[in-house]
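Friendly challenge for the regulars: who can give me the structure tokens for this chain first? No prize, just bragging rights.
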Amino acid sequence: MKALDVRVGALAADRLAREGWHPELVQGLIGASGGPKWLILGRLDRALYQVLLAKRETPLTAVGSSIGSWRHAMLAQDDPIAAYDRFEQAYLAQHYTSAKPSIAEVTAVSDQLLQAALGPDGPRAVANHPWMHSHIVTARGRGLTNATDGPGLALGLGVAALGNAVTRATLSSSFERVVFSHTGYSSQVSSSLAPLLSGFNTRHVALTDANVAKALKASGAIPYLFDGVTDVPGGPSGAYWDGGIIDYHFDLEAIEGEDLWLYPHFGAGVTRGWFDKFLPWRAGRRLSVGQLIMLCPSEEFLAQLPYGKIPDRRDFGKMPEAERAQYWQHCVAESQRLADEFIALVRGGDPLAGVSFL
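First reply, four minutes later:
Bragging rights claimed.
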């Protein structure tokens, strides 16, 4: 049974056939929102660094929302493998005092997890990495959503959801995309990055040692699960929320140019924004994008996991803590197969061995 599904667009396939896998092959890296789903990609991320990216010298535009931005932050550490090991251990061991913890408790645990991911020198590493140029996507509230709690926030989210069901364009009245971008951000990077972040007014704020942690926290702040984040150094004032509200899996169809984008993802289907998850005509779409290389677990791999799925946030309410921890640990162990297959592909003689085409 094949565990890893490697899906490539036409342009990417041509480049792979001519050049093979090498550290400078891709110019962009995408990290999606998804909470606990990241656990299925942690071992693959480590392998990606070890056999492909570790010897890279040219800038890599790493765009991420929520847990995707956290994964990129770990890849930007002086020792990415140690960062992943710390975070994985802390994530699997997270504990809550009840089956329905308070927002304050969830936020406190999230802070501990972020500290595990960053370690003592993480902010400096992320803000100043020589080639891992992180772009941390957040959604700043506008109007009713520019509050950290209260009935007005609930009303604002409801209005945003209803408007989004008609057209995504209405989200711009409820949220503004604010991207905390590496200091290597330039007009050249802007031309390749802008299509992926299309459709909304977008502000770019310089990523610094002082705002890395708050920007990452903001990028994963789900309303009514976590506290909203305010006063991010260097950014406009207001309440910041999960970047996945606007860019859950990103607008892949908007990718332009010759640059290749690598997308380790939780599955073959993509959903552009968080509210789109609840709209069957927008959720889980399969796209054909010439510049894209997707790495994701195969359907056969997913089917043999307990419950036939990867970890997700709903597990917290459905399973006792001990059962959830055991299930998650099993999925992490199984995910090593994704990493092993990727390593074999990169080191093998045929760069397109076993791939499928977008």
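The two ends are 21 Å apart (CA to CA). The longest strand covers residues 132-141. Your move, everyone else.
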